[in-house]
Amino acid sequence: MSQWSQVQQLEIKFLEQVDQFYDDNFPMEIRHLLAQWIESQDWEAASNNEAMAMILLQNLLIQVDEQLDRVSQEKNLLLIHNLKRIRKLLQGKYHGNPMHIAVIISNCLREERRILAAASMPVQGPLEKSLQNSVVSERQRNVEHKVSAIKNSAQMTDQDVKYLEDLQEEFDFRYKTIQSLEQSDKNSALIKQEMLALQAMLNTLDYKRKEVLSKIGRVIHEIDMLMSNMLTEELLDWKRRQQIACIGGPLHGGLDQLQNCFTLLAESLFQVRRQLEKLDELLTRLTYDGDPIPVQRPQLLEKVNFLLYNLFRNSFVVERQPCMPTHPQRPMVLKTLIQFTVKLRLLIKLPELNYQIRVKATIDNNRRFVLCGTHVKAMNMDESANGSLSVEFRHLQPKEMKSSAGSKGNEGPHMVTEELHSISFETQVCLYGLTINLETSSLPVVMISNVSQLPNAWASIIWYNLSTNDPQNLSFFNNPPAATLSQLLEVLSWQFSSYVGRGLNSEQLNMLAEKLMGQQVSYNDYQLSWAKFCKEHLPGKSFTFWVWLEAILDLIKKHILPLWIDGYVMGFVSKEKERILLKDKTPGTFLLRFSESNLGGITFTWVDQLENGEVTFHSVEPYNKGRLAALPFADILRDYKVIMADNVPENPLKYLYPDIPKDKAFGKHYSCQPNEVSKPSDGGVKGYVPSVFIPVSKILNDSTDPHSPSDLLPMSPSVYAVLREHLSPTVIETAVRCKHFHS
């Protein structure tokens, strides 16, 4: 079943979540019509490879054209209209930046997988629940409402300033008219009456000046309060959501909404600034005793400039954290001399700033790293599909200076992967007489010099972003805090949903909890140390919990991904639990689990019944990536044979737990069907019969477990069937035994 088919079967509350991340950037119609094709492409790799992204974009447009041809034949006018509009939109929006659509589609697919994993969980995880707090949503709506109200107030004040300007011009005209009269005329009763009228106008001017200043002050106060409270909280929440998304959590939206709020506030502040400049202009033409402008205007202008400085400083954010294109699901782990990408955005989107802001990237000097490649670029609105003012560095690479590299041999692996660094960015904004220096930094990154350090480096990134909201605590691992086990388990499930397409259910998480704690207790409030997670060896093992788990992720990704996504690999189940599950099942029922003693190993256990009714269990020696590289795991399950004493080889695997016929579960993953393999012709003139490796184990009378499955017989299923037709079971068994004993 395709991923999209699974999504469509979700409950309405999950479908509403899916609906939120499909829009004109990637319309749901295309996701629906091209579901199979979209899921078969590597959008993740394309998101960091421009040439690959361009090819995928062109192929996507071809797929849309084919759908257009199909619906044209069906004369579906509405769908024809929508597809033409969507095709034009996709080509126009992404032709200049094909990697952007690859990022969008990759994120959508990943978010679908996360929602599917969440739907399979009995309860929502604590981290995800906190990110979807209804109070947060209400605050978002309040911020947008208040920003809109502030913008309207600033515009209304513009009208008041214009009225004040008109009133003062009339006063100037009438006053100058009186001044131009002869002295004799000034003593007339009419002129005296006019002087009284001018005094009344001056009183009105004074009242209006005070009123305008008061309104400006209220607008400034509202902006100040909004920035100090709700907007700051919104920005911090977005940054926290970004942290969680970087370690596999829900995608972080809301940056476009924040950009809209920041931009409207900046426009309002610049509008207020112009109003104050206009008041200063009116002041030069007319002032009087008790004039409020010279008293209040400097303070208001100082406050406006202060708010603009703060607004700009907060608006400079890292939109996409540093990430190597070769490891898109492991952001913030950077390898020396390997390129990484990072994207920044200025949330204040003003046309005057397009191509006017040059951003410089640097790295801290903790171990005297330097950045090679283009490290100064201009922000612009042309490269982003949504027109944001941003800059993306695509060709940066960290290099370690020789003086620091020379001491590297004295450093242990944990010291390297627990050492945090940050990529810093600085720029300067010059606008309307203001000069504002801006600085921001990435989340802490871990530098590695060898890809073998990647697993432990990624563990450091997980632990940091799970445990703290602080974006720049580079000394975090000097005394790393403990993590709540319930939150850690949620993050571990995200590793599976984001990296291998299917998260962990509650039973699988319980097994991991028991492995971490060593006993079965409630783990809601259990605090787990960093050492126990990543540094201390598991009891009786030569590796840590994290190394064991990372090896399983690697095994799934490279060798059993389709089986894992289909949910047929129970995986995390102890030997004791598997026997409880299998003991009452039909003989031949089996389950698949990951080895607890071998790194990156998978095994299967089946239940059998002796003639006296006694239930027995058999577990095959785990298959590792070396064996699975030679023979697909689905084919192993299909062709696996066991030689029982005095019996011919037979496949003991009949039903996948709980009662799924083996071929029904794995049939679509077989590299070829047994009946598709040619039988040898009678005369043998049609060439060779294709051969396959058949895994065979031998179970002795006094053994409950088979021998190693490493003996792979080069025999096709059809050849084996022919041999059974012409040879007795004893002869076949003798031949197999000879092969087994000589290997």
Automatic annotation (TrEMBL):
GO terms for biological process: cell surface receptor signaling pathway via JAK-STAT; defense response to virus; negative regulation of developmental process; regulation of apoptotic process; type I interferon-mediated signaling pathway; type II interferon-mediated signaling pathway. Belongs to the transcription factor STAT family. Keywords: Acetylation, Activator, ADP-ribosylation, Coiled coil, Cytoplasm, DNA-binding, Isopeptide bond, Methylation, Nucleus, Phosphoprotein, SH2 domain, Transcription, Transcription regulation, Ubl conjugation. Residues 564-666 form the SH2 domain. It comes from the Eukaryota. GO terms for molecular function: DNA binding; DNA-binding transcription factor activity, RNA polymerase II-specific. CDD domains: SH2_STAT4, STAT4_CCD, STAT4_DBD. This is Signal transducer and activator of transcription. Its main location: cytoplasm. SMART domains: STAT_int (SM00964). One of its GO terms (cellular component) is cytoplasm. InterPro entries: p53-like_TF_DNA-bd_sf (IPR008967), SH2 (IPR000980), SH2_dom_sf (IPR036860), STAT (IPR001217), STAT4_CC (IPR046991), STAT4_DBD (IPR029839), STAT4_SH2 (IPR035856), STAT_linker (IPR048988). It is found in: Cytoplasm; Nucleus. SUPFAM superfamilies: p53-like transcription factors, SH2 domain, STAT, Transcription factor STAT-4 N-domain.
